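#struct-pred
JK: can someone run the complex with MU-OXO-diiron? inputs below
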Amino acid sequence: MSCKLADTLYDVSALDWEIRDFHGVYTPQGSKYNSFLILDEKITIIDSVKEQYGKEAISKIKEITKGKEVDYLVSLHTEPDHAGSIMEYFKEFKNMKLVCLEKNYEFIKNFLPDLDESKVLVLKSGESLSIGEKTLNFKSLPMTHWPDTTSVYVPEKGWLFTSDFFGSLISLSKPFYDQIGIDIYPFIRDYFAFLMRPFESLTKKALEYYKSLNPTMIFPAHGPFYRRPEDIKYIFDATEKLIEDPTENKVVIVYTTMWHTTERMAKLISEGAGCSDCEVKVYDLREDPVSVIMGEIMTCKAFAIGSPTVYNGVFPNILPLLRLMRLLRLKGKKAVIFGSYGWSGGAVKEIEEAIKPLGVEVIEKIETRFALKQEEVKRCFEAGKMLAEL
Ligand code: FEO
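RT: done, structure tokens with the ligand placed:
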């Protein structure tokens, strides 16, 4: 079954309650692959869904179309969560044409080598397609996630389809943001940190373009839709903050540990930071998902990062974070590096070599041998206080 979202517009999305890792992004509440059906002279679908949900989405579509042929399937982006069931849709809707922009088609040809090219209508960015009373205005907005990311705007209705931009990975039965009653920001933040934060100028331009359209409803490819003016303002403002300056009055402490000495240092730093009013978050890399830690580091004012030494370098489970932190545009943030060792140090140096080129200012380094000495206990506590007071 599916919800009517507006006159002639239906939600034919797929809810994925099971997924917990969406290509590296932690999804504690699953994900939703948004797909839309527009009834007009030409019956049009916007995006398919992940392959395993194709049949389910098709049955939703057929319930609404009541046997009428589907004319167009618009593809906004060629990753399997949106393009994965295109061939299944072609089996069901024999006269359907796939509609996409040139860049998208370059990817689709490789993703679906068996697709008959006579079934594809390729448009240029800026071109429009009339589907009857409504028009679909296509625009390429590269790197508002992927090089092929496309938006469609329906000017007669003010409907804006933005692919993954404005998306959040969460599976919700209620379609609209004003119905869900939860704080969606951490979901928007973590998705943005992982996929869009590196592309400052392109995301900024896209946001300006979307604002200039003054849409009445926004439909991203994941998560809830936005329809009230205050909700549209909310998603615009949240995205602007994530592009420009997402800093909050927050200190993040992230660590990994072998024999709990580095963990003890993390606790002392957190206790020092806890003496002030700022928020303090602590993450253990043995347990906590890297995508959440990325979102937290992107939005903190300062952070502490620690690892014990193994073979003159960091403990291996910190390496994905050190690599992914390059995406976050951390220039100007301040950090404390800490760690412990037995026969030789090296972890603190390796972390410093990873984060200094990102423009992070290292304000304190603490490396202890075997057990913490009284002086080091004090230094950890004071380092936490210093971070919180910045
Ligand atoms: Fe790149 Fe939602 O896909």
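RT: quick notes.
The chain has a mean pLDDT of 97.
The first helix runs from residue 54 to 65.
JK: thanks, will look after standup
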